[in-house]
Specification:
8 helices, 5-stranded antiparallel sheet, alpha+beta, 1119 residues, 20% helix, Methylamine Dehydrogenase, Chain H, single chain, Immunoglobulin-like
């Protein structure tokens, strides 16, 4: 309904007459035919109508069909004639006087039987006030909605009524078939009836009553007038009080031959009357009587379909200005009444003139064309409108000789170039391959003689070659002739020719025009380095005759020009190549604008000719019709069969006359048109939503029976929860051209950008978020006209139940309750937390007390230990001092005694040996041996005493920041070298992994160095005891690292390990595992004491046969 209103308003604003005025200029209309091959269900079509939604309804002998441009849907099995109402419903005239009514809301047909059994098909008319009238055998009946019956209106004469026709103001005329005569009946908008006799038909020589010539039709005309029409002509009057004025049509013989019928096989629109006829349709101008007829063309797929018998087949004009002609047993012929006239040239017999080579327009607007189809008179002079041939000029037979000749005929049959010089002279270049065929023809303005110029081998000033392709004139009035071998310069006054590039430097030279600089512009061809030929633009200075090759290349660097260059009114030089087109300025330095065809909608297009209009828009004659291009907007518009062209394949004819007319030629004739006369159908497509699918199921299944209605009647839809896919199928109805209308859509609230929908009429959304949206769809007709307002559909995507308002209400109640419980719980937790804090504080205090107690206890133990150590030290010192003096005495005297025995032995050796001497030596040796033992044990006792003194002395140094890694490195090396210098040295691999993160530590360095030396010496001693294995390699690993709040020192060896039974004893003083007199048992004890004095801890790990690890942990509080 919304589309109907918009289209109606637009039609009123533009005026109904406009399309018919446009059609009056069209000489060769192109039809779009719909037959069974195109999907038409039946060809027995009798009636066409369009409802308020935009659907086309088709009444046939086989039933009633609804058509959306793509799909046919059979609604009812009977009904040849149909009439749509303002509500989107359809009245159907069924056989034997029955009527049916279809409304999409309930998708069924309501029957009204026996409205009038005397008439096979009732004539229906729906008035603007929505009254439904039926012409019956007893008069006009009006439908009464209250009683659901048809009631005979009062005030009528008894008799059958046919041909109901309504005027613009609600007036209605009809034929009243009474017992003795037929009268012209009228019904006023108020429902009052009047009758009158038909006048005498002045178009009939027998002066019979107008109705006596059958068929006769009558219809309102103008504000108050009427028209009566029969095969003899028509009569009209402006008001009921005026006399009838009689008119004959301009082609009365065609009107009688083709005939027409009642049953609405005619259509009145504006001041034109359309007639659906046998093998033709005609249009009569009711103002002038001018009649134009379009005949059927059986072998032309774009011509009017035939129709051997009328069968009451109607005409219909839809809201977009498309004429529908039902052609019984063949199908439907559609004519776009806004179709442009591209001026297809025809000969005197109406036959299209094919293979036109050239054209030129004269000052008076008439024009000449040259064709290759006639061997006698191929130069044809047309009237300004192109409808009339004024003159033909043929060629002389046999051809004239070489040089200059004068005659009344051309030098050759084929006019390849026609040119009008500035003095009004008509120049015609002719020719064909082969010597002597062609020449230049000079026709004076009065056409009284033709001077012919041809090549003369004996005259060097004659034309160089006879096959002429192009003619140009420079500002000095001199001509430049392009022929098959190059370019000739010609002086019309001296009539002398001179060839440019006589040495043949270039493979080919084609000059096309003279630019505003006075330079000849053309295309040259020359061989490239690779041996292939290349094409280039060139300019030729018409004064110096110097040729300049222009270095202009396409984007790919390859030049192949497909059309002659042109210069528009803005002095833009346009060229076309295989890859695209563009323009340069008159400097010819570079392309200032370039369009790559691969990036357009026409990637495979070949441009064969270029022209332009006064606005600077281009027109291309191409391999796929005529293309209009706007350099400012970059928009293209294509003209093909559907826009009135007779052919899509165009050749190289490229001419624009002074009047602005464009001349293009193709394989099916030449077109002469003015760009300003190209018309636009300003009616956009009508859009309707055909089907809505939710997850593949029709939306109707989600509605209650009371809510169900066709999708095209919906203004909104609700998507239930859980739906993932929404598909909307729509129709963009406009039957101008091929009916394939481009569409776009957007979902406001989801994506504001327009998306291309193509021509398939379907769009899909998946997983739409919950919310409200508006779907907007717009479409474009073949002329690029979009809908002023898009068709809209409101879409609401419902949330799942847990996101609905009532769910949120429940959530709110639950949250409030939870909040209450939470607050109470929080209070309880807060009270408990306070109690727990009090307990924690008490426990913390208890822990602090416990910690203080432990520290106190540790301090006490340390004091006790220190006291013990001090007592032990004092005792040891006393014992050592007491023992050391006797030991020194024993050691000293044993050492002196051994020296004395050595001297005695030497003296005895000097005495001669005897029995007493030998015995004396033996006794002395025993004494020496005893003294050695005394010395060894005395030395050992001295060492023990020294160790005891050292142990009792303790460290007296202060703790200072010490580089732990450097200290370890120094004393490990010192211990190693000491071991190597002593008895029983061994080879040990020493590895030190010292963590750089371990920095200076507060140590008593002279004490802590003993720890390192003692641990290393113990490791060396342990590994020495394992040296009995040949495969064994001693290894000492010393590591430092920072771990949390501690510094770790690890000394690890691969010695024999420490047995479990002595692990607890090794830190005790005087405990040693060494044999004999080698150890004192105080090394590890001192080490342990020093570590504890530094607040550290010593841990020992050992595994028999694997090795031992001594780990020292120092707290960071001292670091």
């Amino acid at each position: 309904m919304r589309n109907f209103i918009r289209s109606t308003v637009l039609a009123l604003l533009m005026g109904y007459c406009s399309p018919f005025e446009i059609f009056a200029q069209t000489k060769s209309p192109v039809f779009r035919n719909i037959t069974s091959e195109d999907g038409l269900p039946t060809t027995s079509v009798t009636d066409i109508d369009q409802d308020t939604f935009g659907f086309i309804w088709i009444g046939t002998w086989d039933g009633v069909y609804r058509f959306d441009g793509k799909k046919y849907e059979k609604i009812f099995q009977d009904g040849r004639y149909i009439e749509s109402d303002q509500e989107g419903g359809l009245w159907i005239s069924i056989q034997t006087g029955h009527l049916g009514y279809y409304h999409p809301s309930y998708d069924s047909v309501i029957f009204f039987e026996n409205v009038d059994e005397s008439i096979r098909y009732l004539d229906l008319k729906i008035l603007e006030n929505k009254n439904v009238l039926a012409g019956t055998g007893s008069g006009i009946k009006r439908f009464d909605p209250a009683s659901q019956t048809f009631i005979l209106e009062e005030g009528q004469k008894k008799g059958a009524v046919r041909e109901l026709n309504e005027g613009n103001d609600g007036r209605m005329n009809f034929l009243s078939f009474q017992e003795e005569k037929i009268q012209l009946g009228s019904r006023s908008p108020e429902g009052k009836y009047s009758y009158e006799d038909f006048p005498i038909d002045k178009n009939n020589e027998e002066q019979l009553s107008f109705y006596q010539t059958s068929p006769t039709i009558v219809f309102p005309y103008g504000d108050k007038g009427a028209v009566i029409f029969n095969p003899n002509g028509f009569a009209k009057r402006e008001s009921p009080n005026e006399d009838w004025k009689f008119f004959q049509v301009s082609s009365p013989e065609i009107l009688k031959e083709k005939g027409f019928e009642n049953y609405n096989s005619y259509k009145l629109q504006g001041n034109y009357l359309w007639l659906n006829q046998i093998n033709a349709i005609s249009r009569v101008d009711l103002e002038t009587g001018e009649m134009e007829t379009i005949n059927s063309e059986i072998n032309n797929s774009r011509g009017l379909l035939p129709m051997e018998s009328n069968h009451g087949c109607n005409l219909y004009i839809d809201r977009q200005g498309i004429l529908w002609a039902s052609r019984f047993s063949y199908g439907l012929s559609l004519l776009n009444l806004y179709q442009s006239d591209f001026g297809l040239l025809r000969d005197e017999n109406g036959i299209v003139i094919a293979d036109i080579l050239s054209a030129a327009e004269m000052e008076d607007g008439t024009f000449w064309v040259g064709t290759r189809t006639s061997l006698e008179k191929g130069l044809i002079h047309f009237s300004e409108d192109g409808k009339t041939i004024l003159e033909r000029i043929g060629a002389q037979e046999p051809p004239p000789s070489g040089g200059k000749t004068i005659g009344k005929a051309l030098s050759h049959y084929f006019p390849w170039k026609i040119f009008v010089s500035s003095d009004g002279t008509l120049w015609v270049g002719t020719g064909q391959p082969g010597p002597g065929y062609g020449g230049l023809n000079r026709i004076s303005p009065n056409f009284n003689q033709i001077i012919r110029y041809k090549h003369d081998p004996l005259d060097p000033n004659s034309l160089s070659q006879d096959w002429i392709f192009n003619i140009s004139e420079d500002p000095q009035g001199k001509l430049w002739i392009t022929h098959s071998e190059g370019i000739d310069f010609f002086d019309p006054e001296s009539e002398k020719f001179s060839k440019i590039d006589p040495e043949g430097k270039f493979l080919d030279l084609d000059a096309y025009l003279v630019d505003p600089n006075g330079h000849l512009l053309g295309v040259l061809e020359e061989a490239t380095i690779s041996g292939e030929s290349g094409q280039w633009l060139f300019t030729l200075n018409t004064q110096t005759k110097e040729i300049k090759k222009l270095n202009l290349k396409g984007k790919r660097g390859q030049n192949y020009f497909t059309a002659q260059p042109i210069i528009d009114k803005q002095n833009r030089v346009w060229v076309a190549m295989r890859e695209g087109f563009g323009y340069t300025d008159l400097t010819y330095e570079k392309f200032l604008h370039w369009v790559n065809l691969e990036e357009t909608a026409f990637p495979d297009l070949e441009i064969n000719a270029i022209s332009y209009n006064d606005r600077g828009e281009l027109y291309f004659a191409t391999s796929d019709g005529i293309i209009q291009y706007s350099p400012d907007s970059g928009n293209f518009r294509r003209f093909g069969f559907e826009m009135g062209l007779q052919s899509l394949l165009f050749g190289g004819l490229n001419y624009r006359g002074e009047s602005g007319k464009i001349f293009f030629s193709g394989n099916s004739g030449a077109n002469v048109f003015h760009p300003d006369q190209i018309k636009t159908n300003s009616y956009p497509p009508e859009i309707l939503f055909k089907e809505i699918l939710l997850d593949g199921e029709s939306y109707q299944r989600f509605l209650d029976s009371a809510e169900r209605q066709p999708s095209y009647m919906l203004s909104s839809l609700v998507v239930p929860p859980g739906i993932t896919t929404l598909v909307v199928q729509f129709a963009a109805i406009h039957f101008g051209g091929n009916g394939q209308n481009q569409s776009q859509y957007r979902l406001v609230g989801f994506n504001e950008d327009w998306q291309d929908a193509g021509t398939n009429g379907s769009l899909t959304y998946t997983n739409l978020p919950v919310g409200k949206y508006v779907l907007e769809v717009r479409s474009m007709n073949l002329d690029g006209v979009w809908n002023l307002e898009p068709e809209t559909l409101k879409i609401t995507v419902l949330p799942p139940w847990y996101l609905t308002w009532w769910a949120y209400s429940i959530y709110a109640v639950v949250i409030i309750l939870l909040a209450m419980f939470f607050i109470r719980g929080q209070r309880r937790r807060a009270a408990k937390k306070e109690r727990d804090k009090a307990i924690d504080r008490e426990l913390a205090q208890a822990k602090e007390i416990e910690k203080a107690y432990e520290n106190l206890k540790a301090a006490q133990e340390q004091l006790v230990q220190q006291e013990k150590l001090a007592s032990l030290g004092q005792l040891t010192a006393g014992i050592a001092h007491e023992i050391k003096n006797p030991l020194n005495f024993v050691n000293n005297f044993s050492e002196v005694s051994m020296e004395l025995i050595e001297e005695a032995l030497e003296e005895i050796h000097q005495i001669q040996e005897n029995e007493h001497a030998v015995e004396t030596v033996e006794i002395l040796s025993d004494i020496k041996s005893n003294l050695i033992k005394i010395y060894e044990h005395g030395t050992r006792a001295n060492r023990i005493v020294s160790s005891m003194l050292q142990h009792s002395r303790g460290g007296e140094g202060k703790m200072e920041p010490t580089d732990l890694n450097a200290l370890i490195k120094e004393y490990v090396n010192l211990s190693f070298h000491g071991m190597r210098a002593g008895k029983n040295p061994i080879n040990v691999d020493i590895e030190m992994n010292l963590d750089a993160e371990v920095r200076k530590v507060n140590l008593v360095s002279e004490d802590f160095s003993r720890v390192i030396v003692n641990l290393c010496n113990n490791a060396f001693d342990a590994m020495r005891s394992k040296m009995n294995s040949e495969l064994y390699q001693p290894k000492l690993l010393v590591r430092t690292k920072a771990e949390g709040n501690q510094v770790i020192i690890e000394v690890e060896d691969n010695g024999p390990g420490i047995p479990d039974e002595i692990k607890d004893k090794i830190l005790q003083p005087f405990f040693t595992t060494k044999k004999g007199t080698e150890g004192t048992g105080l090394g590890l004890s001192i080490t342990h004491d020093i570590i504890k004095a530094h607040g550290g801890q010593l841990d020992i790990k050992s595994e028999i046969g694997i090795g031992s690890e001594f780990k020292i942990s120092l707290p960071t509080k001292i670091v």
